[in-house]
């Protein structure tokens, strides 16, 4: 097993995070099958620590559910359509108009910022190209000077 170049360590276990362990960990976290990962790595102390922490937080262990039957602890907010009476309310119309204006302004600002960044990138690329050309010319002059000596 090769150790990753920056020699990261697992935060909880304080062992070198090898490429193989890293790949296994990311695979099993993606598949939500932590028990299989613990069986392969063979670290029972970590599994007991994890189960104790999950019990403290009252969270189901990953083995207790399949990914298709998982329901999050918090449900999304229910959207309620406005009645025609509410939509005709002047206060509601003012709020909606202010919100629409704010959204328009925010999107416009984001587009302007993105355009500015793209312009800076183009300028930097152009400057880089010019500097490379200057460097090429200077190197050519230097090589011609060496030949004459």
UniProtKB/TrEMBL annotation:
InterPro entries per UniProt: bZIP_sf, C/EBP
GO molecular function: DNA-binding transcription factor activity, RNA polymerase II-specific; RNA polymerase II cis-regulatory region sequence-specific DNA binding
Residues covered by region (Disordered): 44-76
Coiled coil, from the record: 114-148
A Gene Ontology BP annotation from the UniProt entry: DNA-templated transcription
Keyword Coiled coil: yes
Keyword Coiled coil in record: yes
Keywords: Coiled coil
This protein's name: BZIP domain-containing protein
